[in-house]
Hints:
The protein is mainly beta. The chain has 2 domains: about 5-295, Immunoglobulin-like, CATH 2.60.40; about 320-459, Sandwich (Immunoglobulin-like). Helices cover about 5% and strands about 45% of the residues. It is built from 5 helices and 33 strands. Strands 11-10-9-13-18-15-16 form a 7-stranded mixed sheet, with no helix packed on it. Strand 10 and strand 11 (about 200) form a beta hairpin. GO terms for molecular function: copper ion binding; oxidoreductase activity.
Amino acid sequence: MNLDRRQFLAAAAAWPLVPAAGRAAGATPLLAHPARQQIAPDGHAQTPIWSYDGSAPGAEIRVAQGARVVRQLRNDLPQATSVHWHGIRIDNAMDGVPGLTQEAVPPGGQFDYDFTVPDAGTYWYHAHNRSMEQVARGLYGPLIVEEADAPEVDRDLVLMVDDWRLDPDTVELTGDFDNGHDLGHAGRLGNIVTVNGRFDPEFRVRRHERLRLRLTNAANARVFELGLDGLEGWIVALDGMPLDTPLAVTGAFPLAPAQRADLIVDVTAEAGATASLLSIERDGGYGLTRFQVGGVAAQSRRPAPQPLPPNPVPDLDEPARAPLSRMRLQGGAMRWLDSARLGDTELSGRELAELGRFWALNGYADRPAEPFLDAARGSLHRIAFVNETAFDHGMHLHGHHFRLLTEDGRPGPWRDTVLVRRGETRQIAMVADNPGNWLLHCHMLGHAASGMMSWFRVA
Ligand code: C2O
Ligand code: CU
């Protein structure tokens, strides 16, 4: 029997009520340890997970723009670990990448993270050692940086979407994190979808209430196509960075692993009805989160929101003039690698597969000894991600935000993770202004583990 979402939907007779997302900021320690959580619908057993401070997502860290974040990671897991503060333009030494910016913290060990957050917005933190296993087990949490001049909303809801692959009988996570079939295809796709670690949570709202929804895709590999029902509004930020002009949500919008979207929405469903955040799929779709409309907050909708205040990211005038580097995304099922480099040696596709390597970036099936890009501090660069594979990839750069360029080379939204669909080429432009060694990888975590890993240097 396959445990699928619809069966779970039918099985979930009593809807869990989830408390408002604004938990108090955690104490200074950030404790990574095993825990149990109700991932499957009520009535099923709890699932053993790995957590920060006892739950997945871990405790919300919420600070003011420009503030200092100090957390001592304490590792009570059976594996070495580290924490990456995804999307923060951070000091390189605090970036949390074992083998590049720090050593992995062994079981029983600790590491002091101490950094400031230059940009307001919706960010997240997650494990960065064996991430395809550790993030799948639940090691992630929200990092919210508040604007000094925040938009007026009635409620600010942090919604972290994830999918879990549970054994249908035991509801434990299946242990096949290294499964070669997943690695060489779309990655580890789960069979139950949660928001804030709960199956189909419910919030109570009122008609015409204005909500800020901070959406994060914490899944290993699934690209969600999200939609709204009974809610209407705008995307005001992507990957933490404000859009110059809020974008009305009209249909489905994609959210790739690690991407975030901030929405400002009004509850337009009638009192007594249910509004939803939807995951839209070819065969229809299903609700991820329900908003039970109890009463009326106002007689009519408010006017459209203003853009959020911009973040102090370095400006990019005339990105089309920046030198262009090409990064070819290669390999995977149906386009298997003929050969690629691993360390100093060129190996055949078959030899690579035996070593669990199925993908390559510019001919390298792991982080190469030399950086993909050696950038002078402050220089402007373009990168074209050329997807030669039969799968979608979400390419993420550490330590920087970049602008996605339109087809005709004009600057589009700021992002830290770009979805490059099969067959597509997407160009980005950035000012390499943050010194250090920075990872560049696919955020489909199984792809990263099996070849899609590179880095760049800013000096
Ligand atoms: Cu969110 Cu290198 O990762
Ligand atoms: Cu990928």
